[in-house]
Design brief:
The chain contains seven helices and 14 strands. 35% of the residues are buried. The protein has 312 residues and is an alpha+beta fold.
Length: 312
Amino acid sequence: MVIGSMSPVISELEPGDIGQACQLFQDVFGAAISPAHWRWKYLQGPRLGGVNLVARSATGELLAHTGASVFPGVMRGNALSMAQLGDFMVDSTARGGYSASTVYPRLMKAMQETLVSRFGNPYAYGFAGVRQFKLGIRLGYYRVLQPYRPAYFKPAGPGPAFWLAREMDWDTERLDTLWSRRRSEIAGPRVARSGAYLGWRYRDHPVNRYQLWRLSHLSRDRGWFVTRTMPDGAVCVVDALLPAAADPARLLSTLAAALNKTLPVLPPLYSWLFQNDADPALEPVVGGEFKLRQWHSSDPNPVFQPGDTDVF
């Protein structure tokens, strides 16, 4: 499907273009991504669908790309489609001003129109660097939800009595049961953490390795943590499902105790679970809403975790 007649032409990514898209990714971001990784990211998992739009030169060369993955979500216990945008990239030869006829606004407008036509009015969001977000805000496509800070955790003592964190396999049925207990407590928009979603996002990740921890109280499953050991040795809590009334810091003490049983020295442990606006340390990423028909400013803001991005 061609979405514009001006040059360069905006169209949908074809299966045969994935190799070119991976090369564009490396050229723009300076990091490699394999076709298998791309297919995992944009075609696999329990998704509702997706959109991948590109700008092509007159000879068919890919000059720019933006993608969206759409997953089932929840807000206040009700079903909601969640559309995560990612990998907006423009080759250096196609960059320039930001009038309505240039590549960036044309791709963004095409993404708005395509998401609305296919998925109604999903909650669209994404994560980008501060500079990119400032541009998106200026052009009216983004509003900032929250800049994120790594909240480092040092156990002040043992976790709450009768709570345990233990390593767990990716048991889809068990994870579905846990999610069904907690989903009604989710106020802001959030991708549904079904067992199938967690298996795709973490167990089946083509590059990174993750550990799932079952959180229990008096032997009953109450939630989970998902952790990743980062290249610098720190352990990041990339995903957590906790009881709404729980104190994340106290339950992180339970996780720290479990980690201490498997590691000779507890490494730095951090999460996004308790943001502190006074902390000057910022992740190089901002979470924001992408405007479709209108902003969702009257709804509660989502509370993202590192695993909601594609870089943790």
